C-alpha cells in the first residue's frame, strides 16, 4: 500500500495472469533502492528526486513490471472514478460516439460517480495500458467504447483483470456486461422503409464483412426483403471500409454493374455521404434517380445535400443503460447483455419510386 492509498504488486508468489512476475522488491534490488522509494516513484508520490523517479520508471518498464492484476487489489475502492476508454483511430471514422460523452457523464453523476476519459490507440494498443490506467487512477470500473471488440487487446485485458466493465460490442464475461444497438432490427427498418417506397432492386454497401455490426445489419436488411419474397442478389453488394472515400469509390461501380438499381442502403453514414457525393458528381440526382440511406444517425447527416435518411441509434438510452449495468457489476451482479432498438430517421435522400 502506497502513501496515497493505492496498492501495487510486491513480488507475488505466482504468475496467475500470464504477465511478468516482476514486483517492487525486484526493482528495488536491481537499483539498490528501498522498496518504499520505488513504490513512491511508480505512484508519482511527492518527495522523490526526478532523476530517481525517471530511473525507476524506465527500469520497471524494461523489467516488465505492471501493477498487480488481481481485481480486488487493482481496482480502486471508493474512488468514485470510472474510466471511459475511447479508440484513437488512425483512419477516417465516424465521430458519433462524441455524442455519448455528456449522457454518460450525467448518468454516472446521478450515482455519485465521475468519468475520466482516456484516448487509446486502436491499431497499435500499448500492452497493459488498461492495467496501468486502472492502477494509477484507482478506477472502480470501465466503459469501453466501440470499436473495442472481443478480439481487441484492451477487451482481452479487461476480461483477464475481471475489472467491472461495460462495452458496446456484445462481449459478456463474469464481470463484464454489454449494451448494444440492435443492428439486425436496424437493418430490417431500413429494408422495410425502402420496400414501402416501392424499391425492389436495392444495392447494399457493406463495411468490413467480418465485423459483427456488418453481419447483423445486412442480415436484418435481408430479413426485410425475405418478408416480401425477395432474396437479395449478392451482385448488388459492394464492400467499403466505413470511410466516406470507400463509399464514393464503390458507389458508381455498383450502379454501373446494376443499372436497374433504384436505391442504395449503406452500412454507415460516412459511406452513404461519400456515395451521394460521387453520384451527384456523375449527374445522378438523389433521390430523383436513386434513393440513398445511411446508418448511425450522426448529427451532421441533417446538413448533407439532401439531408440523409438514416437509422438512428438511441444513444442516450444506451448510455443510461450502460451505466446501470456498470452499477450492477459494482454491486456484485454477474455480466449480462442488453440490446436497445434503433429507429428510422426519415429525411430527403430517399423517396417513393415513381413508376
UniProtKB/TrEMBL annotation:
GO function term, MF aspect, one: DNA-binding transcription factor activity
Protein name listed in UniProt: LacI family transcriptional regulator
Family annotation (Pfam families): LacI (PF00356), Peripla_BP_3 (PF13377)
DNA-binding listed as a keyword: yes
Organism: Cohnella luojiensis
Coiled coil stretches, renumbered: none
Residue ranges of every copy of the HTH lacI-type domain listed in the record: 22-76
Entry keyword set: DNA-binding, Transcription, Transcription regulation
Keyword set includes ATP-binding: no
